[in-house]
């Protein structure tokens, strides 16, 4: 597969790798790459915790930094290219869901793997990743195949993905 990845995504991947952390472009931006569409907001997930990657994002996002969801592991940054194009990134620590046997509502906590994080996504076409800076495509649930066939499936049981209350 050929990807035309924003150079800023690769640069950010190098910055995380230099500190010993994994970083992957995830979700819609990866789907858009497969469809040869440009994404203007780049979503990433990482092995690092917010307090570990905050200094990296502040260096990267010399035109803006925001803390929109630290308790959920998410921070963001923005920089402008010389031509004025804004490159916005949001980075979230890997997450996982834990289910109480008496409820279908998950408790979200930090996870420890990219694949675990991807399993939380709504559809397989959004459960793909591209690790940066090495550009390794990760598709544990067959999202690329589903995208080419024009079908939507969930990475896990759809009742687990969409139901918010316990069924009687």
Description:
With 168 residues, this protein is of the alpha+beta class. The chain is 28% helix and 28% strand. The chain has helices spanning 7-18, 28-34, 50-60, 114-118, 143-149, 158-162, and strands at 23-26, 41-46, 64-69, 74-80, 86-93, 95-99, 106-110, 129-131, 136-138. Strand 4 (74-80) and strand 5 form a beta hairpin. The N and C termini lie far apart (46 Å).
Descriptive keywords:
9 strands; about 170 residues; Beta Polymerase, domain 2; two-stranded antiparallel ribbon; single chain; 6 helices; alpha+beta; about 30% helix; 7-stranded mixed β-sheet
Largest sheet features = 7 strands, mixed
Structural class: alpha+beta
- Average per-residue pLDDT, rounded, comes to 88
Write down the CATH topology.
Beta Polymerase, domain 2
Distance between the termini: 46 Å
The CATH superfamily is Beta Polymerase, domain 2
Strands, helices and their partners?
Blueprint: H1 7-18, E1 23-26, H2 28-34, E2 41-46, H3 50-60, E3 64-69, E4 74-80, E5 86-93, E6 95-99, E7 106-110, H4 114-118, E8 129-131, E9 136-138, H5 143-149, H6 158-162
Parallel strand pairs: 2-5
Antiparallel strand pairs: 1-2, 1-8, 3-4, 4-5, 6-7, 8-9
